[in-house]
Write a structure and sequence with these properties.
The protein has helices spanning 13-23, 38-43, 64-74, 89-98, 110-121, 129-138, 157-167, 172-179, 183-197, 202-212, and strands at residues 4-9, 29-35, 52-55, 80-84, 102-105, 126-127. By secondary structure, it is of the alpha/beta class. The chain folds into two domains: 4-138, Rossmann fold; 157-212, Arc Repressor Mutant, subunit A, CATH 1.10.10. Strands 2-1-3-4-5-6 form a six-stranded parallel beta sheet, sandwiched between helices. Helix 3 (64-74) runs parallel beside helix 4 (89-98), helix 7 (157-167) crosses helix 10 (202-212) and helix 8 packs across helix 9. The model is unreliable at 139-152 (pLDDT under 50).
């Protein structure tokens, strides 16, 4: 039987060692590599392509949310499982928006983690029972396949890209250059974003974006 190849990204060395030891005698999966930071992962890509990448959210140089977004941009087929202590709705929402295929708390039982890994490796979505309860409490329903869109403002993909760049304090000309569009197009998108979010100015827009989890930090 072919083993499921795992790669770990977590800044806690003892945690990584613990996970590696847990899978040492597992006949179904194995850890093929690890990184202690997002930057290390990006600068030193896995030698063996993993089936599932397990990523923590809270890391010093770059969050797991941002790393997930970058990985998915580079390889949309990458399968990512958030393995973290955070159960706050905004962290869950941001990981979903970034493209995570699953979300499991570090406090979960080993069998839950194994089930999550198998599900994600086989192309499915997996959300820890506690995470599902958190979503149900805040949103009210979960789609049968995956979580429904949590963004209530219905921003388009392009509008989300521009909103993200606005929060990074880029000017219209800089955004236009980065996205290969005209400044006039950027200004039109900005006006549409303001209208949809009902923000009165850029400061209000940034605050709303952070509060609602519409962008990644």
């Amino acid at each position: 039987m072919k083993k499921i190849k795992l790669y770990l990204v977590d800044d806690h060395k003892l945690f990584i060692k613990g996970i590696i030891s847990l899978f040492e005698e597992n006949s179904e999966m194995e850890v093929v590599g690890h990184a202690y930071s997002a930057k290390q992962f990006l600068n030193e890509p896995p030698v063996t392509e993993p089936d599932v990448i397990l990523i923590d959210i809270n890391m010093p140089d770059m969050t797991g949310i941002e790393l997930t977004r970058i990985i998915k941009e580079r390889n949309p087929k990458a399968k990512i499982l958030a393995l973290t202590m955070f159960e706050d709705i905004l962290y869950i929402q941001k990981m979903i928006q970034s493209g995570a295929n699953g979300y499991v708390l570090k406090s979960a039982d080993m069998q839950v983690l194994i089930e999550a890994i198998k599900t994600v490796a086989n192309g499915g979505k997996f959300w820890d029972a506690e995470i599902r309860n958190t979503i149900l409490e805040k949103v009210g329903a979960i789609d049968s396949e995956e979580f429904k869109d949590l963004n209530q403002n219905k921003l388009s993909k392009r509008e989300l890209e521009i909103l993200y760049l606005i929060t990074k304090e880029l000017s219209n000309s800089q955004i236009a250059e980065k996205l290969f569009i005209s400044e006039r197009t950027v200004e039109t998108h900005r006006k549409n974003i303001m209208a949809k979010t009902k923000a009165s100015n850029t400061v209000g827009l940034v605050k709303l974006a952070i509060r609602e989890g519409l962008v990644y930090f």
